[in-house]
Specification:
4-stranded parallel beta sheet, globular
Length: 512
């Protein structure tokens, strides 16, 4: 007797059914988010509801794109190297022909500094821009000094704009008061404040818009510097500057001490030629070294320049992305953009920038997600965008105390807030500097370990690890490696000259 045929229960879900299921999930997630944000909005302090409403609208757009995106933001097979002419050489640019010509181009400029970050990674409280860098002057001091000198030298009125986050706004506002007598108009505005979302539920972890100050950092976040364009427009400053006859803004990180106003680049932007109209956007790039392999680079994608970040690269192509033979340049985040184009793109909702998914675990163990964007990714939204390969000197960020050691040393001299490579340095490149995290990562601890900054003019590479201190007048040359093992301490005596030396073990200098 033949066995009875058995038909499987249910049916296989078709691809269209899967898509429909995902669409229902996404719709449900958006509905739930909208409900949660409306609840939060009702808790907004009096007078702040419009600000929160605008921020929540921006977050909803970003969240909607996040849950609907399928697969990678770029297809590796479509990525091409940048064609000839898409990245121009800085050496081919020319200065304004006269002081009057320089005044004319500077009259079109607005300088913007990104000031959303805290100094916590370097052991400091408050905005990173208020950390003393050199001669007791902070990042903010140096930037104000640079612009004031520019205005005095050329008899112009270049304004300085500072984009803060909710983390840095209050302290920065206090610091800005001391510049009232300077010849520089300073404006500030806040970037968006977005709610952190629970990784599992995808819902905001905030329960109120009036969270206590000490928990603000836990439940809210600034969504990266890609938020600049829309926040700048929403602040009203973009239109104000357009009405005043300004044409371009120069945007950079406030901790990049090499990001000064450059007349050659500005002249290239403002000076129209009969052949073509000026580009709406410029990204400064510089040659990649082995220390820069993770930095974003430019590629040619769908007939446009595109910023390619390592987070967008499939795992099997990461080594290819890091290769300095294929991708030879990286983004300095020194950006120049046309103000009218910014206003237009924001109005037309053109800033659909690639989403950077930043997962974090809070101190209470909760897994959350931050959705961020990068300012350089906007290069694809502007017409005629180009890259300019600039000297390495225009990229001098201070992210760690090892960077601080370099800018505080005699490798640089300072003039009107601008750091200039010491002419006695034989090479224009800076030494490779590695300081151990356990003893040098915090600014105060770092400063305590140097009785005076060492002479580093002839230094190529320094690595310091462990409990190490430096006396006054120490000179470092060539390659110097100093390793104090656990439990040991090394005191480099005053006036010591270390050239191509490895120092290890235990060396104490005791007072008597």
């Amino acid at each position: 007797m033949a066995a009875p045929s058995v038909k499987p229960m249910g049916h296989r879900r078709k691809t269209s059914d899967t898509r429909m299921f995902k669409e229902l999930l996404n719709r449900d997630a958006l509905t739930c988010l909208d409900s949660e944000l409306n609840k939060l909005l009702k808790t907004a302090p009096p007078g702040a509801d419009n600000v929160f409403k605008k921020d929540f609208e921006g977050f909803t757009k970003l969240f909607s794109r996040y849950i609907q995106q399928e697969g990678p933001s770029v297809e590796w097979e479509k990525i091409n190297l940048v064609p000839d002419g898409a990245v121009k050489s800085y050496d081919d640019l020319s200065m304004p022909v006269s002081k009057d010509a320089a005044q004319a181009v500077l009259s079109k400029l607005v300088v913007v500094k990104l000031n959303g970050g805290l100094g916590t990674s370097m052991g400091c409280t408050g905005p990173k821009s208020l950390i003393s860098v050199r001669n007791d002057l902070t990042f903010l001091d140096l930037n104000v000094q640079q612009i004031e000198n520019l205005n005095n030298m050329y008899d112009v009125d270049v304004p300085l704009v500072v984009m803060n986050s909710f983390n840095t706004d209050e302290d920065t506002a206090k610091a800005l008061r001391k510049y009232t007598g300077f010849r520089v108009k300073i404006y500030s505005f806040n970037q968006s404040r977005y709610p952190r979302i629970n990784k599992e539920t995808l819902m905001p972890i905030a329960s109120s818009c009036t969270e206590k100050q000490d928990t603000d950092e836990e439940v809210w976040y600034p969504p990266g510097h890609g938020d600049f364009y829309e926040s700048f427009v929403n602040s009203g400053l973009c239109k104000q500057f357009i009405d005043e006859g300004k044409t371009y803004c120069f945007l950079s990180n406030i901790d990049n001490l090499g990001a000064t106003v450059d007349l050659k680049i500005l002249n290239f932007l403002v000076s129209e030629t009969s052949n073509s109209s000026p580009p709406e956007f410029i990204m400064e790039v510089t040659d990649k070294t082995r220390g820069d392999v993770k930095g974003g680079t430019l590629c040619w994608y769908e007939e446009k320049l595109r910023l390619l970040e390592i987070a967008q690269v499939p795992k099997e192509h990461v080594d290819e992305f890091k290769s300095i033979n294929k991708f030879k340049i990286f983004n300095t985040n020194n950006l120049w953009a046309n103000l009218k184009a910014i206003q237009r793109n924001a109005t037309n909702n053109m800033f659909q920038l690639e989403i950077i998914i930043n997962p974090k675990t809070l101190d209470n163990g909760l897994n959350i997600v931050q959705l961020e964007t990068a300012a350089g990714a906007a290069i694809k939204t502007f017409e005629g965008s180009v890259g300019i390969n600039v000297p390495r000197s225009r990229f001098l960020p201070v992210k760690k105390t090892s960077d601080l050691l370099i800018v505080m040393s005699n490798l640089y001299t300072m003039k009107h807030g601008t750091l200039v490579m010491n002419p006695n340095r034989m090479f224009q490149s800076v030494p490779l500097c590695k300081l151990g995290d356990n003893h040098f990562s915090k600014v105060q601890e770092f400063l305590r370990r140097f009785a005076g900054m060492p002479d580093m003019l002839e230094l190529d590479h320094i690595t310091v690890s462990g409990d190490v201190t430096f006396g006054k007048g120490v000179s470092l040359k060539g390659t110097v490696i100093i390793i104090a093992n656990h439990g040991d301490r090394i005191d480099i005596p005053p006036g010591a000259i270390l050239e191509n030396k490895i120092v290890s073990g235990n060396l104490r200098i005791l007072d008597h």
